[in-house]
Design goal:
The structure is a homodimer of 307-residue chains. The first copy, chain A, is an alpha/beta fold. Chain A has a single domain, classed as Ribokinase (UDP-N-acetylmuramoyl-L-alanine:D-glutamate ligase). In chain A, the strands form two sheets. The first copy, chain A, has a nine-stranded mixed β-sheet with strand order 5-4-1-8-9-10-11-12-13, sandwiched between helices. A four-stranded mixed β-sheet of chain A has the order 3-2-6-7. Chains A and B meet through helix 8, strand 13, helix 9, helix 10 and helix 12 of A and helix 8, strand 13, helix 9, helix 10 and helix 12 of B.
Amino acid sequence: MSLLVVGSVALDSVETPFGKRDNVLGGSATYFSAAASLLTKVDVVGVVGEDFPHGQLDFLEARGVRLDGLERVPGRTFRWKGRYGFDLNAAETLDTQLNVFESFQPKLDEQARKAERIFLGNIDPELQMRVLEQAERPKLVCADTMNFWISGKRQALLKLLPRVDVLMVNDGEVRQLAGESNVLKAAHAAKRMGAKAVVVKRGEYGALLVDGEESFFAPAFPLADVIDPTGAGDTFAGGFLGLLDRLDASDPAALRQATVMGSTIASFTVEQFSLDRLRSLELSQVRKRFDAFRGLTHFEPLPDHVG
Amino acid sequence: MSLLVVGSVALDSVETPFGKRDNVLGGSATYFSAAASLLTKVDVVGVVGEDFPHGQLDFLEARGVRLDGLERVPGRTFRWKGRYGFDLNAAETLDTQLNVFESFQPKLDEQARKAERIFLGNIDPELQMRVLEQAERPKLVCADTMNFWISGKRQALLKLLPRVDVLMVNDGEVRQLAGESNVLKAAHAAKRMGAKAVVVKRGEYGALLVDGEESFFAPAFPLADVIDPTGAGDTFAGGFLGLLDRLDASDPAALRQATVMGSTIASFTVEQFSLDRLRSLELSQVRKRFDAFRGLTHFEPLPDHVG
């Protein structure tokens, strides 16, 4: 069992209809590792500036997350500022300051190179490829990306996809990548581009897994209190890969369980600002909600006399 | 087994990214009965004008739909004209001509009064109430409504809700009714207004059933070809009530099966324009897709060592 994440560690300023937080912990690698560390050992590769309050990550180290690959370099930490309206599905980015992240060059130490599973957070696909070039023999590679790279670094992304086992994107991204408005057709097109499986994250509407010819759908857990959706996608990925690493499996049944685990942990993330809910989250609570997911989607077959 | 629908029979002109149809068969009672008649006997109460091409309904009569309650009166039939963009979830209404529907007064004959289950299509809540006043002893009443009535006839709607077993609306409608942006909270608020259960239709994202404290989620069947979403909601209702009537049940397990049946039949509706797909649809095909829904949402429990 070993899981590597390469991505951002950030300071976020977020406003939602339910409140406002300034310079709180954020970033894809941070959210991912907070989720995945409930299930397995996680290695982080990323970069922060001199201004980063390192004590903020103590709770991750306490959960066994290895931060040796988190470089600290001169300059300021990556900062993101965003706002959500009542439609919590869509963030409006108010400001992005790449800062030290702009010249980030992921370096994997000896232990990180041996990782069995790798999550490539949403960074330049050329950097994502450089991570894979350093990795020795991963059993599974999962990659996120975004509109900026799909249009601006398309060739690099297309070169990456054949090395990706699970492409994990939202519906707008898969549509843009494939140039196809139907999400199912777009996911199959992404598979033809090389990704072995595609997970389409649909925010409060759940997630669709397209693996081979089969599809699997996991709803988002219906929540009465959604406070801040930031990080839902990255904790989805953390739950997904954390479970695959824990199970040491990637057969179709495991991919389904992993999709539900992703939805489950993401549903906790959004209940509080920043990583606040994840700090206190325990695996027993996660398991309880995973089981409740079965109740949420279970139905009996039709009796024989119908049909 | 007996199921009554009261609603519109219309001529629609529809444009989607995949084509255009003028003056084709439409209307809530039409879509509903085409779906429900695959499962049970349906009685229609509605009104058309002298211009209505009655032969269009022959396929419904062939399936045992009783049209004795479909009045034919002087004037023109209700017409709706709409357009869908690439986001097939949202129709833009270009023109609505109520015509004979404007002075529609639903009249139930002796047989219709004895209906065990009633679907109140999206009409003035005062008319919906008049239907219930004529009904003798329905086992189950399901009602649709829309933004126009929620704001314009709120008192009449609030008076109706305590007589409704299943309120069936889309997410925008339940949010508006409850004045609450969270869909789950809004559904519970609608229950406190009197509806015993609430089904929230979410277009391509599926449907949520809130019944007691429990929730159930049925995804929309992922389709590669969605041609025209018109009528999806009414065929959802037709599948839902058609199955409950066929099973003569409304326990929680039956409500879940009915929700999946609604999603199943709606998924056929959108594959062609107007009622074209429903004309040729057979129950054996419906059953096959219902079973495939189980494959779409099934996942194994977590092994004991996780959690």
